[in-house]
């Protein structure tokens, strides 16, 4: 059963790496990553002000990406290298708080710019 929970660490870590990739890509190209920021109901073409949207969204994507990647590493270490106990629990709580904040913040941005 522990291996199943450890596998979740790899999924979180992968999500963090993808978020970092999306951040770098959006910063370089100026295109909105629809997977990370918009979801199925929105498209980049419908954005009222793409530059302003990215200016507000990119810092949130970076924070989310860093926290997700770090927590993924902590969780993998906890399940496959050495138990970290409270560090893993604290990391999980921080990750969940940042996840909820990110979802709330990006939803607010979508309402403002779409």
Produce the secondary structure layout.
Blueprint: H1 2-29, H2 34-37, H3 50-80, H4 86-113
What would your notes on this structure say?
The protein has 114 residues and is mostly helical. It has one domain. It is built from 4 helices and no strands. Helix 1 runs antiparallel to helix 3 (50-80) and helix 3 runs antiparallel to helix 4. The protein starts with a helix and ends with a helix.
**Count of helical regions:** 4
Mean pLDDT: 94
Give the beta-strand count: 0
- The portion of residues assigned to helices is over 70%
> How large is the radius of gyration?
16 Å
Shape: elongated
Q: Structural class of the secondary elements?
A: mainly alpha
Quick overview of this protein structure:
The longest helix is centred in the middle third of the chain and has 31 residues, at 50-80.
Supply database-style keywords:
mainly alpha, single chain, 114 residues
